[in-house]
């Protein structure tokens, strides 16, 4: 096997170059960073380096998508969907699994979730069909036919990101959910705790005025 | 198997948490970054994620240290040590394999190398015995006995990093190499190309005066 076909000693040997290329594919890992991480893995013990390889393998073997909420899970339905203590009349729609973690961490919400796995972004070729929207509609249809008290979905909270793609996704969902007899809400926009008025962008200021509340 | 022993939905499931922990061990990868990388690997295809795992495994299986220069290689001796076109009378001592790549890239040097795999750093518990110094002395002993013209080592260039640890390592090597009838040099210190005089540190300015040269 010819591992260094260029015969150029200023390029790394093939097993090193291959690992560098794979690390460089990760988001936010530039070529210099990939090189540094590679040589770190070269220098640590076999055991330590293979622990990372095995963790990747284990994660891919053990994680699936919850057939109800589409969040990543190791059992179906996931721990949130199967939790009898949660409010099953409300679904919070988020873009990514990490958003579920953040909302759970805040303890602000005790209903169910639905993970879209992205946001509408025509520039990146992501339309509604690339997201888990069909699965959300199936959940609404099933709930419609349910006779179990408290299991009928009454509210959908759109909690997509407050950016262009997230807003576009929320608008789209709001439109396709309008035929349903369901309350559709979105998270409040306003000043962030700890922020400063003078550094707050205009759109946020406008929205915090529009949404002002009585003491 | 209980993958989520806390039963807390704000902590990630076990296979995800394990991968996060492994990625967090890498240098420069903080907890937030480890989380982001993990969820990236969750979202990509099995094939794509396992390519990284396999690249780590392949690198660990295929790379060894060259028995002569201690650089990482996939064959022993490495392509540099076995290159008949290189000047075998000179050894450039560097801290890490990445330093060899950088020097090879510059095409400034055509002799052999010796990789120490670190620098003396008492604060981190790294003394001379933790470095590949013994192996360097063995090379000198072998060369001493060699009758092959041009294979006798005549110069050692100390190319450790120009920082505290690198300087300490160079000083130490200079001392233990003094009994040998070998020229011991170090790389020049001075202004960096493209730099500005007013932003150059004092030590570098002093050294660039000391090392000033005729046109």
Q: What would you note in describing this structure?
A:
Two copies of one chain form a homodimer. By secondary structure, chain A is of the alpha/beta class. Chain A folds into two domains: 14-62, Helicase, Ruva Protein, domain 3 (Orthogonal Bundle), CATH 1.10.8.420; 85-195 and 203-207, Dna Topoisomerase Vi A Subunit, Chain: A, domain 2 (3-Layer(aba) Sandwich). Helices cover 40% and strands 12% of the residues of chain A. Chain A has seven helices and six strands. The first copy, chain A, has helices at 14-24, 31-43, 46-62, 97-106, 133-145, 164-177, 202-210, and strands at 64-65, 72-73, 87-94, 111-115, 155-158, 183-186. In chain A, the strands form two sheets. In chain A, strands 4-3-5-6 form a four-stranded parallel sheet. In chain A, strand 3, helix 4 (97-106) and strand 4 form a beta-alpha-beta unit. The longest helix of chain A has 17 residues, at 46-62. Chain A is globular and about 70 Å long. The interface between A and B is large, with 64 and 64 residues.
Residue-averaged pLDDT of chain A = 90
Radius of gyration of chain A: 23 Å
Largest interface: A-B, 64 and 64 residues
Task: Assign the CATH topology of the largest domain in chain A.
Answer: Dna Topoisomerase Vi A Subunit, Chain: A, domain 2
Which class best fits the helix and strand makeup of chain A? alpha/beta
Number of DSSP E strands of chain A: 6
Q: What is the quaternary state of this protein?
A: homodimer
Order of helices and strands of chain A: HHHEEEHEHEHEH
Low-confidence stretches of chain A: 1-7
Number of domains of chain A: 2
Distance between the termini of chain A: 75 Å
Number of helices of chain A: 7
Q: Would you state the CATH class of the largest domain in chain A?
A: Alpha Beta
């Amino acid at each position: 096997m010819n591992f260094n076909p260029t015969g150029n000693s200023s390029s790394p040997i093939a097993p090193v170059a291959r690992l560098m290329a794979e690390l460089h594919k990760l988001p936010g890992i530039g070529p210099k960073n990939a090189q540094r991480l590679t040589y770190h893995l070269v220098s640590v013990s076999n055991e330590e380096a293979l622990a990372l390889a095995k963790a990747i393998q284990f994660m891919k073997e053990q994680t699936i998508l919850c057939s109800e909420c589409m969040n990543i899970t190791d059992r179906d339905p996931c721990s949130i969907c199967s939790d009898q203590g949660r409010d099953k009349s409300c679904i919070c729609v988020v873009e990514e699994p990490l958003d579920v973690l953040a909302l759970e961490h805040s303890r602000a919400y005790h209903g169910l979730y639905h993970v879209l796995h992205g946001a509408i972004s025509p520039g990146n070729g992501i339309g509604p069909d690339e997201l888990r929207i069909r699965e959300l509609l199936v959940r609404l249809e099933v709930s419609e036919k349910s006779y179990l008290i408290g299991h009928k979905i009454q509210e959908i909270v759109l909690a997509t990101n407050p950016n262009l793609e997230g807003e576009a996704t929320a608008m789209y969902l709001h439109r396709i959910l309008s035929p349903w007899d369901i309350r559709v809400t979105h998270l409040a926009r306003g000043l962030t705790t700890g922020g400063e008025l003078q550094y707050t962008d205009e759109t946020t200021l406008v929205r915090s005025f529009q949404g002002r509340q009585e003491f």
